[in-house]
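User: Please predict the structure of the protein below. I'd like the answer in structure-token form so I can feed it into my own downstream comparison script.

Assistant: Understood. Taking the following sequence of 329 residues as input:
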Amino acid sequence: MNTLEQLLTTTDTVVLDGAMGTMLFAAGLVAGASPEEWNVAHPDRIRAVHRAYIASGSRIILTNSFGGTRYRLKLHHMEDRVYAFNRAAARNARAEADAVPYPVLVAGSIGPTGELLVPMGNMEFADAQAAFAEQARGLVDGGVDLLWIETMSDLEEVRAAVEGVRSITDLPVCATMSFDTNGRTMMGVTPAQAVRTMAAWGLAAVGANCGNGIDEIEDVIAAMHHEAPGMRLIAKANAGIPQWRNNELLYDATPPVMGHYAQRVRALGATFIGGCCGNGPSHIAAIAEALRVPISDVDLAALLAERANNDNGASDPARRQRTRRRDRD
């Protein structure tokens, strides 16, 4: 039995971590710099982020390797450091996970290449697969428990990542897509199509991250659970909708709001619950606290009625606008 399955024997719902980029910018990372380089240049700062999330209740933490393929690192002229950066990312997370007296799993974060596959772009499938395999080798050698493919928009790129990872290891693989265009990914993939396709690949869990905030993630989880009720689902929502204030990008969901979101997505079928952009340790602490309330003690009828009310646009002008767009489509 792998470590993920062992963890799932002890809990029905697993708390994930929050945003890495949000925390690194707060720690001094400047726009345009490589977060992955910090794994070797500032490992203490990376470990501090992991430590804060573990203290907040995360039972799975993601490595600082989202942009760790040769394609993304080439933007920083560091494509020759793929293995070193990814192995260091895994080791930093592993050190903090092993420092606590209870199981915390390390998931190797693998983000999109930023390129388009042929025929829409110039990246060949075999090249993408090789790039993901190269990244996975560093993560596996650094000690991850599972691989976590995230923020994808193209199912073919997800497949390239899955096949690349599986050419290196038999560790569990999870995958999430970002649904940010009228309930679809940028490449037009629906939640039902995503879960149906990825479930056939034998992934440990699938779901959604990032996107257009809490409401969008709830819609996706509901649709995925309806399509594949037996599939373990992942919900990792942004902390609301970003807004520019005083030349700073801020997210509007407070920790209590994220705790309420955690209860709703659990009711809708999610097993793995955390946060994406804008979420920090306080948000994850609120999620962990909310999920400690047994589902039998949560007024599910009230939660689902609230969601139905939001679907009708009674309390959220932005949601009303999105609903009107879907009605026209």
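That's the full token string. The beta strands are 14-15, 60-62, 105-110, 146-152, 173-177, 205-210, 233-237, 242-245, 248-251, 270-275.
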